[in-house]
Amino acid sequence: MDDRPRRLQDHDRVLLIRLGAVGDVLRTLPALHLIRSTYPTVHVTWLVEDLSHDLLCGHPEIDEVLQFPRRELRDAATRPRLLAGLIAAFARDLRRRSFSVVLDFQGSFKSGLLALLSAAPRRVGFAPGHSRELSFALTNDWVRPRGRRLNRVERNLLLAEAVGARGDTIEVILPERPEEGRVAEEMLRGLNPGGSPVVILSPGTSRRQRGKRWPAEHFSRLAALMAPSFGVVPLVAWGPGEEALARAVVAGSGGHAVVAPPTSLRLLAAVLRRSALFIGADTGPMHLAWSVGCPVLALFGPTDPALNAPLGGAHIVLRAGRSTSDITPEQALEAARRIMGRSTPGAAAPRLLRSALFPRSAEAGR
Prior knowledge:
It is a single chain. The chain is an alpha/beta fold. It has 2 domains: 13-173 and 355-364, Rossmann fold (3-Layer(aba) Sandwich); 178-348, Glycogen Phosphorylase B (Rossmann fold, 3-Layer(aba) Sandwich). 37% of the residues lie in helices and 17% in strands. The protein has helices at residues 22-26, 29-38, 50-56, 70-75, 80-95, 109-117, 152-161, 178-191, 216-231, 243-251, 265-273, 284-292, 305-308, 329-340; strands at residues 13-17, 43-48, 64-67, 101-104, 122-126, 141-145, 169-171, 198-202, 233-236, 258-259, 277-281, 296-300, 316-319, 351-353, 362-364. The strands form 3 sheets. Strands 3-2-1-4-5-6-15 form a 7-stranded mixed sheet, with helices on both faces. The protein has a 6-stranded parallel sheet with strand order 10-9-8-11-12-13. Strands 7-14 form a two-stranded antiparallel sheet.
């Protein structure tokens, strides 16, 4: 086996596939940066679903963002002829772009099938045992991580290294648009006219991940303890379908917490850049906080922090192996005290030395 990476060429047209969850997309950005830093002239397209599409639009390191038509395909699921026509049309759209290399960061059957449908001659993905749903059968250049308990950021970086990208740092590029900063500052002035440090509380998760939630009453208790102890404003953020949960946290806090207005992901990123701390479970907003440099207190239950915890010394992970509800508000308060005693609000997005976090941990090739 030849373990040497097959480098990209200056004229290559590269397709990155990471479709779905916000946290997964954010944790692929360091791999994008590694590729773009090594190969400034290659054409990079990212295929993504609607949930994370806006995060990537206008990104300076991406030449084109393609949106996977998930909703249209779902709506056509009971009409086989229409569904087949939509898939065929999307496949034609992929092929006409003449991709020479695909990197399948997702490692599922769907992403592997899209890599195959692109007709790219080189399709880089994870080897058997490191991918799901037999997706390895749809790629032809495999990466074999030496361990299964890799943080997802490092796992994605290994795929970038398989095409010859090199770098000693982990860096997230997620620029803020000027209007987003203005709106975030106006929002925070209105909610916090005294200018106190803001702590973002994020009690929600997707329905599928309800088991990750820390109880609303724990968030309420933490806000009631934190506001007078630290002189902060606990701001409860929420996403679609979570407003009632956020208001329940505020109602139980004895007037210490404030509910945030509706925000997009990009506006939430701007608010997080101006906040002293984020507290929440392993969710997209947690990864967004890490991505923009906001210190994180991550609350984990039975899921493995080695895979999903934010990287770097600014953050603390509290874990209860059976359920997040076993983490007490008092434990969270003490961890928050430790973070806020050493952090600076408004820090830049993380730029971390890889050698301080990970050993080299992959081999490439079939």
